[in-house]
């Protein structure tokens, strides 16, 4: 008896909520029924043909507004019912997100499902007394449960969260080298693409960037995309890049792009110490006169690119070289920002003993990592709970990374554009023409 009563109550609740959840669908069905009842089936056929024709013209003439206002909304309604509503209870119970109190089960409630071009956003009302962290810890279970490649949790307010499930991977295909911008914005260099299809823009002026990833994860593409985006300014002389290339593989290809280049320990340390001297000279000139750096030919933005920084700070056999390199890097990263000196470094192993300076880099890029515990080491505490599974990045997708974009603590999945050897040769040849 109780069970049947519960079913009836749920059915009534569902019917009452239906017009609020799906107003267009319920309105259309009611309108169709009314036309069929008052005017007959022939007129219903005419009305449906007119509406269908109108929608067809809309789709044909204005496809993007049709997609936004009709296609994605219809998809959202469909996925709400077919994917999320249908699997909600079993997935949440198995994932341990259903709560029990006095032998009653309480489930978080789906408020709304909306679709963008690439993802489903499921807005959820939490059960009172639970926290968004419970969902953040279960992102893997949720993603697998709803058949999505990943899941990200965003908190909108009290008991109000959004679960974002990508429907397809927008980063599955290699992205060719980005077009070189005519006007270089050093605070927004085009690097590649974000998971939602928007451009991934990197700030370099006023910060330092550390790129971490195992061998073959695509660190080179991050460095080269940044250098490529700056080439017009390098040609104009308002940006100067000094490169340290211990592996002699990554950067030697485009040597003409670099104002200075070093490939062994001693030369690398000298380069870093020269950079420190240049920075301090600039700081002395600016003192009391200028608070921010504006790149000019006389005072260019100086970018120190270091491939495999641990070679200098941890692996170099000479202790003196290691110590001097670490000192110089610490000075550059702690004092360079406001005087127009930035360090863009790459690193394979983020463990503390390998690089003590990790925290001096305000911006970090986590390419594919070896272990789950390294994610928070690179992107900061809580990054993995928020869905930055850099250790699960597919080895077949080099260049894919997690980053924190400015003004947000939510890690975003991005893919760096692939700058091929031919692209680098073309960039270097252009530079020879200028020199
Ligand atoms: N963004 C990218 N998109 C597609 N393919 C890429 C990308 N970046 C790198 N690759 C491919 O992956 C290979 C390894 O990349 P890369 O040498 O940049 O890795 P790495 O992290 O610098 O490795 P190592 O530390 O060994 O130098 C490249 O030869 C290239 O074929």
Automatic annotation (TrEMBL):
<keyword id="KW-0131">Cell cycle</keyword>
<keyword id="KW-0067">ATP-binding</keyword>
<keyword id="KW-0472">Membrane</keyword>
<dbReference type="GO" id="GO:0003677">
    <property type="term" value="F:DNA binding"/>
</dbReference>
<dbReference type="GO" id="GO:0005524">
    <property type="term" value="F:ATP binding"/>
</dbReference>
<feature type="transmembrane region" description="Helical">
    <location>
        <begin position="38"/>
        <end position="60"/>
    </location>
</feature>
<keyword id="KW-0132">Cell division</keyword>
<dbReference type="InterPro" id="IPR027417">
    <property type="entry name" value="P-loop_NTPase"/>
</dbReference>
<feature type="binding site">
    <location>
        <begin position="213"/>
        <end position="220"/>
    </location>
    <ligand>
        <name>ATP</name>
    </ligand>
</feature>
<dbReference type="InterPro" id="IPR002543">
    <property type="entry name" value="FtsK_dom"/>
</dbReference>
<feature type="domain" description="FtsK">
    <location>
        <begin position="197"/>
        <end position="376"/>
    </location>
</feature>
<keyword id="KW-0547">Nucleotide-binding</keyword>
<keyword id="KW-0812">Transmembrane</keyword>
<dbReference type="InterPro" id="IPR050206">
    <property type="entry name" value="FtsK/SpoIIIE/SftA"/>
</dbReference>
<keyword id="KW-1133">Transmembrane helix</keyword>
<protein>
    <submittedName>
        <fullName>Cell division protein FtsK</fullName>
    </submittedName>
</protein>
<dbReference type="GO" id="GO:0051301">
    <property type="term" value="P:cell division"/>
</dbReference>
<dbReference type="Pfam" id="PF01580">
    <property type="entry name" value="FtsK_SpoIIIE"/>
</dbReference>
